[in-house]
Specification:
CATH superfamily: Aldolase class I
CATH class: Alpha Beta
Number of domains: 1
Helix content: 25-40%
Number of strands: 12
Largest sheet: 12 strands, mixed
Strand order of the largest sheet: 7-8-9-6-5-4-3-2-1-10-11-12
CATH topology: TIM Barrel
Distance between the termini: 26 Å
Number of helices: 12
Bound molecules: S-adenosylmethionine, iron/sulfur cluster
CATH architecture: Alpha-Beta Barrel
Amino acid sequence: MLADARGRPLRSLRISVTDRCNLRCRYCMPEPNYAWLPRGDLLDFAELRTLTAAFQSLGVSQIRLTGGEPLLRRDLPRLVEMLAGLEQRDLAMTTNGALLAEHAAALRGAGLQRVTVSLDSLDAATFRRLTGRGDLAAVLAGIDAAVRHFPTPKLNCVVMRGSNDAEIPDLIAFGREHGVEVRFIEYMDVGGATEWSRATVVPRAEILNRVAGAFGAIEPVVRRDAAPADRWRLADGTVFGVIASTTAPFCGSCDRSRLTADGTWYRCLYAREGLDLRGLLRGGASLEDLRRAIASAWRVRADRGAEERAALGNRGVLADRAALQADPRLEMHTRGG
Ligand code: SAM
Ligand code: SF4
Ligand code: SF4
């Protein structure tokens, strides 16, 4: 089995299919202007299929389509169909949900297995403020479509102090009512989060306290792989998750990597350097050449970006505006989250 320098396997690949987005979430795209990837550099569907096949042959069993907003990529169901044809074991997508109502049926029909929708507030005015331009009603319609067409949809909610932290119990109640599991994500100091500060992070312990305060005792859902619990259960059986990437990072078991829409492969969300797979692909590399390049890069991977960030005494933003303008691949919305 392919393992990196810390013994971690390569199991999961997040494919960003576009760096464009129809929202401007405060924690991801707070700036007035962005540098975009050149159009001609975007991988076409055949190239994405070839790379996905190379990754799968090396042990990747979980593929997640993301962005930017993946539903802005034209003909996305056709890509899903092409990837689903690759003996796919797990094919999922993360979306902001704004366009999901119109695409959910086609995506499910094409072979998409799972969907996660981002939802940060149930109050229309707060939602608009947090997402820059989002229409809560459209996203709620998207969640409704997700529930109708997909087996176990999930909701992602980035918690920011003073913005949506008071809504934690409401979001759990919403998830319970609609049969979707809610996952609270700590605000991360990733590239693009230019407004990040330690003070705006609501740590996992506090999120759990707020849930317990509203619903009573909670217990961890025990995982078979003995990893630290990231899911919790209320007395009535409702399960929710907390992703503590900022205060309790889990790099030790990280089997994830990310492919940007222009074919740059990152072995860590925080990595400065990626591997140019588009260059290899367009330079005529065979499947075997791609496999070799990916495998040798994974074998030397020692990244533990979030743990290194957590160890910093004085933690500021990861990349400043000038660095992000110079290399848009440092952005969360380019890497896919
Ligand atoms: N546009 C889609 C969406 O929002 O679901 C997919 C791409 S988005 C980059 C993927 C995930 O990254 C979302 O769930 C979003 O909440 C999360 N994310 C973005 N910036 C973040 C930050 N600074 N801290 C924590 N999570 C973040
Ligand atoms: Fe928000 Fe996702 Fe767009 Fe980032 S990529 S601004 S998280 S919707
Ligand atoms: Fe994995 Fe890097 Fe995230 Fe750590 S910071 S969990 S190594 S992607």
